[in-house]
Design brief:
338 residues; alpha/beta; D-Maltodextrin-Binding Protein, domain 2; ten-stranded mixed β-sheet
């Protein structure tokens, strides 16, 4: 130990040197990288879907000796999800993750979001890591996109409201609810008697605060990070849709990369997705406690009444026709008869 330094000071110096060295290595990697790649996402910076991809990016840089520098841009810094999806299709953006907007190119890409399809995560991952997911990935491949084999978890979506809790379909009659601009959402809530209103996520807090809409629906992680609980007292754990993010890249650009580079990127993004899934489950359990302490009131409505109304309204028949017999049969293989 250096004379004149306490044990604590010496330890701090070692840690500081390690941090400096690590930072220097990262800068060196970035400067010397042959492949400088960008990954765009709408997830907030503190979302597990960002943290795990950033972790993967560091591992990729290390494992490729700095040949690959993957920069991660959260919070829609590179544009809206439709914008980033278009950029990835054209090859202007290297990677991005999203769910619903991809239906504009590959309609079956949104089949995982059929209302009340998946009872729990065991069925979700059996389907999306299995034959249903393979079918969807194959269709994206035909559209010029490569989709990585494991999806990120965005979570089950839940309904929030300001005036009263949503306990059943009858509470949605005339209920003005913000939805993404996606027909799966619009047709579902119309069939339940609500008034679905597409609003950009960035404008949602103000729309709820000024009562432009009565409520909204999102996974708990986004309800928390966007502080929607400040303007929505009630949270119904409806779990009406499971929402996941595929990780996309341009098919031609991916095919042109060396096999050893593709193997490292694929390995690390796959690991990131699996770890992120566990993060979301743990986060959801914690958020119920955290949001309750913040004043939110939770309830857990029965799902069968909602499914019965949707079935009577022809929702499932309509989407079976739109998606087609083959993918619908694969969906029901895991979800059961809809």
């Amino acid at each position: 130990m250096a004379r004149g330094l306490t044990r604590r000071e010496f330890g701090a110096g070692v840690l500081g040197l390690a941090a400096f060295t690590g930072a220097g290595m990262r800068v060196s990697f970035a400067q010397s990288a042959k492949y400088k790649l960008r990954y765009g996402t709408a997830f907030p910076a503190d979302h597990p879907g960002v943290a795990r991809i950033q972790e993967a990016a560091k591992a990729i840089a290390t494992e490729t000796n700095g040949t690959v520098d993957l920069q991660v841009y959260p919070n829609s810094q590179l544009g809206s999800e439709p914008d980033m999806f278009s950029q990835t299709r054209s090859g202007a953006l290297d990677f991005m993750s999203t769910s619903g907007v991809n239906q504009t190119v590959v309609p079956v890409g949104g089949i995982n979001a059929v209302a009340f399809a998946f009872e729990d995560y065991s069925k979700v991952w059996a389907a999306m890591d299995g034959e249903l997911g393979n079918h969807v990935r194959e269709q994206f491949g035909k559209a010029g996109l490569y989709v990585f084999p494991k999806m990120l978890d965005n979570g089950y979506r839940n309904i929030t409201s300001s005036a009263k809790p949503v306990n059943g379909p009858e509470d949605l009659k005339g209920f003005k609810i913000r939805v993404p601009g996606n027909q799966l959402w619009v047709t579902m809530f119309k069939a339940l008697g609500a008034a679905p209103t597409p609003i950009n996520f960035g404008e949602l807090y103000a729309a709820l605060q000024t009562h432009v809409v009565d409520g909204q629906e999102n996974p708990l992680a986004l309800i928390s990070s966007a502080k929607l609980y400040e303007v929505q007292k009630y949270i119904a754990l409806s779990g009406h849709m499971w929402d996941g993010h595929h990780i996309f890249t341009n098919g031609k650009k991916w095919a042109a990369m060396p096999e050893e580079i593709k193997a490292v990127i694929s390995k690390r993004l796959t690991e990131a997705a699996v770890r992120e899934r566990a993060d979301i489950v743990a986060l959801n359990d914690k958020l119920v406690e955290t949001l309750t302490a913040a004043g939110a009131v939770f309830n857990k409505p029965e799902k069968k009444p909602f499914r019965d109304v949707l079935s009577s309204a022809g929702y499932y028949t309509e989407w079976k026709s739109k998606f087609g017999e083959e993918p619908w049969a694969l969906l029901e293989k895991y979800a059961g008869k809809l």
